[in-house]
Amino acid sequence: MKTLLIGEYREGKLLESTYELLGFASQLGAETAFLLVANEFQLPAYDGMLYLADVDICGEYNPDLHKKLVLDAVKRENPDYIVFLHSSYGWDLAPRVAASLKVAQISEIIAIVPGGFEVGSCNAKMRRTVKPNGTKAVLTIQAGAFPSERTGTSPKVQKLTAESTGALEFLGYEAAEKKDVDLGKAEVIVSAGRGIGKKDNVPVIAALAKALGGEVGASRPVVDAGWVEHSHQVGTTGQTVSPKLYVACGISGAIQHLAGMKKSDFIIAINKDKDAPIGEVADVLVVADVLQFVPALTQKLQNV
Amino acid sequence: MKLLVCIKQVPDLESRFKPDSEGVWYSESDLAWRMNEYDEFAVEQAVQLREKLGETVELTVLSIGPDRVVEAIKKALAMGCDNAVHIQDPVAAAKDPWQIASVIAVYAKDKGYDLIFTGMQSQDRGSAQVGVMVAEQLGYSSCTTLVGFEYDSGVVTAKRELEGGIKGVVKMKTPALVTCQLGLNVPRYPTLPNIMKSKKKEIITLAVSDLLTAEPLAATISFYSPTKKGGGLVLEGEVASLVDQVIGILKEKTSVLR
Ligand SMILES: Cc1cc2nc3c(=O)[nH]c(=O)nc-3n(C[C@H](O)[C@H](O)[C@H](O)COP(=O)(O)OP(=O)(O)OC[C@H]3O[C@@H](n4cnc5c(N)ncnc54)[C@H](O)[C@@H]3O)c2cc1C
């Protein structure tokens, strides 16, 4: 079995997550080749075949052109699986490649299981095993689901080029909003999720944070709705935190939230749904209404 | 100018899911249904563009599925879409993303849409493929994960959300398709007058069999609950007792109360 792994490079750097592709391939027991749009001075720690396209010519985000490069490498390697990370780069490019090749795409794989690949569904509450109908397929793997692996120091480099400019013009990056709190330094974070119901209830969460001497965090919908500032958002598109104590109030536990907090030393989740996926990472899941439990806990703590 | 927004109806994610009789998807009994959250941002963006550009624009909402999806379609009409296409398919859930995309592409092929909006993914399937595959099949430009959208005389300026809150800014010409991310805008609640008005809007029903030409490329083998990774303690009961237990645990297992 052979895999073509599509690495990632952003703002002039090879992304660490690229090595998770090698971890996936080794769990599959598959041969590997890499494709990377990068510069030749920053090659991955890998000793196999690396197809390299020059990022100064091909750009960091240019899906039409990158698609052509992938298709070129596919022609040369004839892989069974073309593997991307399920990231803003991967989920954008993978379906373009799958559509060109008319092969199945299986998205956000979390495990290799008998008969196929395991993926999450229903916001991580359930699982599916999916299998491609043909022999070739495009796969995207969930960030963090497979271990990073390095396999050497110097890849065999084969340069690729692609003609055409592509229909999209990339104008540049915009930095993340400035942080007014550095959640990374907080020892205690109490986070509000959509389960708090409305903006007026944010003070309930803030009061518990204060009683525990910590900061307020938030899940994305709470930030999107403008209840809490973006600088407090925890998750893949917010901050990654690992406090001594993380309290998740009315947060379901979507993978993008978990990615930002699962390394916390101790996690308490308050959720009225006993099956909420946050239970998978929580040391303690309190099955209760946040608006009843949190004020009661705050009050008791103030009297401790 | 013609706009299309594609939406999916999904179950309320706070529901309890059980496998269906074949064990390949969830059983539909006892579920409440709503518009896929990502699609609400797509509808809102399309409606905002329609409002900005005025009467010469026609905005159509499309959904594939059994009769229940008409509820989601009606919400999109009440939010401001002009008319709707319901592609009747009692077994839409059995189709893979490639087939769903091809049904939409076959429908849209000769309609001359300038811009197509979709959500970046569905909440139940989460494959994040359909939008891009529609664009690829139509030969449209496409861009995913939008948290910013601007349109001016045939050019879309899109802000894509990347990891860590960084954004990438991209420009493309129409015809184009964009997939919308959470937080792109603030989806409106339909007002009563708009709900009343929307009742007069046309919903065309088409049979999926007239549009389906693609074979499935992938198959679901099974659908199941995750195996519990043990570990975590689950506390249930009276609030006062829960509070005491949690304080006990905080004292014993963490240093935060010292
Ligand atoms: C590319 C991408 C990036 C993303 N980045 C992030 C990110 O950085 N951070 C992030 O958080 N999300 C992110 N998301 C969104 C993520 O997928 C989820 O949609 C989000 O985390 C859900 O937030 P939530 O848990 O607050 O809301 P929901 O999923 O709606 O969950 C609410 C929870 O509250 C519970 N609840 C409701 N009422 C009560 C009550 N009265 N008492 C107790 N419990 C109650 C419910 O049982 C439910 O479990 C991203 C998504 C994508 C696609």
Topology summary:
The complex is a heterodimer of chains A (304) and B (258).
Chain A: E1 2-6, E2 9-10, E3 13-14, H1 18-28, E4 31-38, E5 49-54, H2 55-58, H3 63-77, E6 81-85, H4 90-101, E7 104-113, E8 116-121, E9 126-132, E10 137-141, E11 156-160, E12 168-174, E13 188-192, H5 202-211, E14 215-218, H6 220-224, E15 245-249, H7 255-261, E16 266-271, E17 284-287, H8 290-303
Chain B: E1 2-7, E2 9-11, E3 33-35, H1 37-53, E4 58-65, H2 70-79, E5 83-88, H3 97-108, E6 115-119, H4 130-138, E7 141-152, E8 155-161, E9 167-173, E10 176-180, H5 192-198, E11 203-207, E12 218-224, E13 233-235, H6 239-253
Parallel strand pairs in B: 1-4, 1-6, 4-5, 5-11, 6-10, 7-10
Antiparallel strand pairs in B: 2-3, 7-8, 8-9
Helix pairs in contact in B: 2-5, 3-4
Bound molecules: flavin-adenine dinucleotide.
Flavin-adenine dinucleotide (FAD) binds next to α6, α7, β16 and α8 of chain A.
Model description:
The complex is a heterodimer of chains A (about 300) and B (about 260). Chain A is of the alpha/beta class and about 300 residues long. Chain A has 2 domains: about 1-160, Rossmann fold; about 185-300, Rossmann fold (3-Layer(aba) Sandwich). Chain A is about 25% helix and about 30% strand. Chain A is built from 8 helices and 17 strands. In chain A, the strands form 3 sheets. In chain A, strands 9-8-7-10-6-1-4-5-11 form a 9-stranded mixed β-sheet, sandwiched between helices. In chain A, a hairpin with a 2-residue loop joins strand 7 and strand 8. The longest helix of chain A has 15 residues, at about 65-75. The N and C termini of chain A lie far apart (about 60 Å). The model of chain A has no long low-confidence stretch (mean pLDDT about 95). With about 260 residues, chain B is an alpha/beta fold. Chain B has a single domain (about 1-210), classed as 3-Layer(aba) Sandwich (Rossmann fold). In chain B, strands 9-8-7-10-6-1-4-5-11 form a 9-stranded mixed β-sheet, with helices on both faces. A two-stranded antiparallel ribbon of chain B has the order 2-3. Bound molecules: flavin-adenine dinucleotide. Flavin-adenine dinucleotide binds next to helix 6, helix 7, strand 16 and helix 8 of chain A.
